[in-house]
Amino acid sequence: MKQVNERISVKELNKMAEAMYGNLVKAVVDIQKGTLVVDAEMHADEEQILLEAGSKQNDLWGINLYPSKFGTAEFIEFDSMINIRPRQQNMSRYVEDETIRQRIKNLVNQKVII
Prior knowledge:
The protein has three helices and seven strands. It is α+β, with helices and mostly antiparallel strands. It has one domain (2-113).
């Protein structure tokens, strides 16, 4: 597991994907603090790292990154069990709020480089 405070390369993500699932890297973002944790078997493990670092549950969202699709709309998949949050009107694994999805995209675009 790696907490990305600065940046991570697509090459690093590719290595992580190959070692774990073959084509994707699980990640959790803190949209308030601007942090990202990648490379765990479960989003819940990454979520726990951020919670222990002081993040608030409402700010954490699980995503999947597909390094081979970097630069396309399919690079980020907004799907995770940790995203099911009735108290935040998110009733599915998908991040339903467009504003939150855009914040996630902006954060990932700042953190992931070629």
